[in-house]
Amino acid sequence: MKRAFTLIELLIVVAIIGILAAIAVPNFLHAQIRAKIARSLADMRSIGVAVECFRADHGVDLLDVWDDDDNAECEKYIAMGLGYTVPSGGSAGRTHWMVYSLITTPVAYIQTVPPDRMFPEIAGVFVPNPYIYVDQDGHRGGSINDHNIGALQFTIAPTRGLLPLQNGEWAILGVGPDTIIEELANYQRRGVPYDPSNGLKSKGDLTVRSSGAASI
């Protein structure tokens, strides 16, 4: 006569499965996050290589959306035959995708500019958003601070890793595991670098700088 499992034995099996799942699922999710971080940083570095190639050929930086927004600076790019990065409606119409047009057209320093893969889905759909490019080329068409970062909180910003760009330096920012450009409403903190030692999903932006520094 075959012996069936008792209720207690079944409950023990269910409990064991639950314990294993509680261990395995977080590890799986963390592995996914680490993979996205690695992919994002690789994409950002690829963009950085393309930016450096463009700078070597033309002797100028990309036309970013913050400190290069006056007519004189835009005219410089138009005179070089790079007017496709200057919107007809003025600087307010220059998007981050448009900033990257200089490294894809007409010379493809990079075939396609990858989107920031850590942006959250909207209603279950991934909407491509670009990484943010900023530079410090010595031109101050807009704000006196990097990427219009306001007061920059000069007294405490360095303690949070928020370091100004040096002249001739660029940086690329990604949203990071917290899926937001840090404190965008309180933009003095945009660019605070992500550090996994603060927690895998801690606040902070993924950052790649031309100087190799880990913060911006």
Secondary structure blueprint with pairings:
Elements: H1 7-58, H2 71-79, H3 96-99, E1 132-136, E2 169-174, E3 206-209
Antiparallel strand pairs: 1-2, 2-3
What does this structure look like?
The chain has a 3-stranded antiparallel sheet, with helices on one face. The chain has 3 helices and 3 strands. The longest helix has 52 residues, at 7-58. With 216 residues, the protein is mostly helical. The mean pLDDT is 77. The chain starts with 6 loop residues before the first helix and ends in a 7-residue tail after the last strand. It has helices at 7-58, 71-79, 96-99, and strands spanning 132-136, 169-174, 206-209.
Features:
three-stranded antiparallel beta sheet; 3 helices; 3 strands; elongated; mainly alpha; 216 residues
